[in-house]
Amino acid sequence: MMKIYISQSEKTCEFQGPKQVKAILKDLDIIPETVLVIRGDGLLTEDEMVSDRDSIEIRPVISGGV
Amino acid sequence: MKCRKCSDKAVLSIPRHNTALCGLCLTEYVQIQVERAIGREKMCTKENKILVAVSGGKDSLALWDILLKLGYHADGLYVNLGIGQYSVRSRKKVEVFAELRNAMWFSQDATNDEGTGIRELADLVRRPACAACGCIKRYHFNRMAVDQDYDVLATGHNLDDEAARLMGNVLHWQQEFLEKQGPVLPASMEGFAKKIKPLYRLTEREIAAYCVVNGIDYIVQDCPLATGSRLLVYKEALNVVEQASPGSKQSFYWGFLAQQAEKFKLDHQSMSERDIALLHPCEECGQPTSSAMCSYCKLMAKTKTHKKVS
Fold it and tell me: CA-to-CA distance for B224 and B221, rounded, in angstroms?
């Protein structure tokens, strides 16, 4: 199972892999424009595959209050 | 996915430009957009002293990094608003960033001046935390820029921020705010620093990606007091539109700027002339205001009155 960490809300979840980034975001009901997907030190584009052995971070990019 | 410029492995797709870029080309793209913003809007020159308002977040640190890399004289100003551990962590990010680049920065403690943190202050005057925070930050940023003889004050407002703010102003027909929604506000009179927003051509996602690619360690957690902020609601709505129709945010805000530019051509009175006619020094602090006391001094006065009563 791949491990997914959603920073900002500090939530974690697991998915059966392999799975495309686009599909992971869709399953989590996340709009791609609002996040970055990070594996290790690198960014993943929506077409990339995430395997069962991977840990990824989904990092929301929306901020601000004023 | 391959980089559209060099065919290397892409790290970010940018649907609004129907493109995808690798780390190096993304860095170049971001820097070009900032240079273009500065040049087209006549924001500043390399001879100017720039004060960058830094929060420890992605936008302000990316802006500071880009300005330094492009060869601008850019110093940082951090305002500590006393938001518990969030302020401690965000200040540390600024400190580490500056140390690594040997960059000059100031830290202004807003909690010392007012004797209370932003959460307590907002509760005391029954205003949303973000409104009180914005008022305090604007005051300190402007005051420091003027007192320390900086030519311009640069903030990290991006395309998402500006489009969301525009949406709020249009939804409520706040026409008086629309006029001041451009990427440059002139130093219209003594006591007002020139304000610039060099990131207005870039989205939050592009800026966050720039930070990751360039190893900029920023505070990822959003401010705990921003929860439920109306600006975040507008951003969410705009991102739904953007997903269905890439480029909408850009055409919304840039289209507005183009219309404003046309309007100013026909308008005989400039923003500076209108400011001079409307504004005068605050009776407490001397900063320009349209009423007897500026909103910062009003806020502080309310806090003092409340403390005396309680």
Answer: 8
B11 touches chain A (CB under 8 A): yes
How many structural domains comprise chain A?
1
Best mutation target among B3, B4, B11 (most A Cβ atoms within 10 Å) is B11
- pLDDT tens digits along B89-114: 999 999 999 999 999 999 998 875 55
Angle between helices B58-69 and B84-101 (to 10 degrees): 10
Per-residue model confidence as pLDDT tens digits over B267-301? 766 777 777 778 888 898 888 888 889 888 888 88
Side-chain-side CA neighbours of B50 within 13 Å: the count stands at 29
Q: Which amino acid is at B269?
A: Q
Task: Quote the CA–CA distance of B235 and B242 in Å, as a whole number.
Answer: 10
Could you tell me the pTM of the whole model? 0.93
Q: Is the ipTM above a cut-off of 0.90?
A: yes
Note down the domain range covering A12. Answer: 2-60
CATH code, domain carrying A8? 3.10.20.30
| Domains of chain B: residue spans and CATH | 39-309 (3.40.50.620)
Closest-CA distance, B177 to chain A, in angstroms, reads 14
